[in-house]
Amino acid sequence: MTGVSIFAAVLSYLIGSVSFSYVITRWVRGYDIREHGSGNAGATNMLRVVGKGPAAAVFILDALKGIAAIGLGSLLSEGQTLMMVCGIAAVIGHNWPIFLGFRGGKGIATTIGVTATLTLAAALIAGAAAILAIILTRYVSLGSLIFAAGLPVMIAVLDYPTSYIYLSLVITLLAFVRHATNIRRLFAGTESKLGSSKPRS
């Protein structure tokens, strides 16, 4: 990687590391969102703990982090690969933010921002499947995993650049790593559903 590429990736990571769920909860409620509900610094836990409005704001702002990272990559290079690398760096920052001791969210909203910017059609199809799964099962984690797994498939089917396929596999891997405990609970039948009074991480 060139110096410009490294700079772009690091800055994108720092953009991703800004935790809006933490900031907004501190502002609205005066406490750390990670100490309540599921303990996750993300929109779903915000919905359960703080409310619909703040959760919607966090979702949009987290998605904008991904869009901003792609914009940075585009500004510094015309290469498609750097844009995707910046997007991945933002997702990593969201998941493991340097500003919060590397305890962040699960990166789905930021991933949506990244993929909707670079691969809109693929993101829409994978997103539709995810939303349907959430409606039918009320498992947000299952919908998130379906979205993440469907991305590289649809990117390949819709004939996006090959580099996008490989880099989207990294995004998929990141999502599955962050949802490891959710996957175990899904198989065990103990995962919390949307609206559950006993949220899990």
From TrEMBL:
GO molecular function, one term: glycerol-3-phosphate O-acyltransferase activity
Pathway membership: Lipid metabolism; phospholipid metabolism
Keywords noted in UniProt: Acyltransferase, Cell membrane, Lipid biosynthesis, Lipid metabolism, Membrane, Phospholipid biosynthesis, Phospholipid metabolism, Transferase, Transmembrane, Transmembrane helix
EC number: 2.3.1.275
Transmembrane residue ranges: 6-24, 82-102, 108-132, 164-181
Subcellular location: Cell membrane
Keyword Membrane in record: yes
InterPro entries (alphabetical): G3P_acylTferase_PlsY (IPR003811)
Keyword Transmembrane helix: yes
SMART domains, per the entry: G3P_acyltransf
Membrane topology classification: Multi-pass membrane protein
Catalytic activity: an acyl phosphate + sn-glycerol 3-phosphate = a 1-acyl-sn-glycero-3-phosphate + phosphate
Top-level taxonomic group: Bacteria
Function description: Catalyzes the transfer of an acyl group from acyl-phosphate (acyl-PO(4)) to glycerol-3-phosphate (G3P) to form lysophosphatidic acid (LPA). This enzyme utilizes acyl-phosphate as fatty acyl donor, but not acyl-CoA or acyl-ACP.
Recorded family membership: Belongs to the PlsY family.
Cited HAMAP family: PlsY (MF_01043)
Subunit record text: Probably interacts with PlsX.
The protein's name: Glycerol-3-phosphate acyltransferase
